[in-house]
Amino acid sequence: MRFAGDAMNPGAGLFSSASKSAPDFGNLSFTAMAEKSKEKQASMYSGAKVAGAGIESLGYSLDAMNAGKAGIANAEAEASATRQNGFMSMFGDIAGAGIKAIGKKKTFGADDFDLNKNFW
Known about the structure:
This protein is mainly α and 120 residues long. The chain has 3 helices and no strands.
């Protein structure tokens, strides 16, 4: 006995044999998605490395800037100390010269009046 389905579809055998050698589109799609994911991961990893390098270089730049500012502040402090030292030395020299100029007052005692000395 024949079924109506076989009589109505004479190419059923042809489809069956062609589907055995057809590409596996499901597996191809899965492979394509996996490769696209790997591409995105590589892109994100590269972007992160570039951003990290930029942040690192910014850190080095800020470190160098702060070291420069510290060096300038140190040099200014040393210059100020040297300037103050010079002023103190100058004032000391002036005071010392003034004290030497005034000198001690000569007091005459009994021993200073030796009659055998010539005062004039």
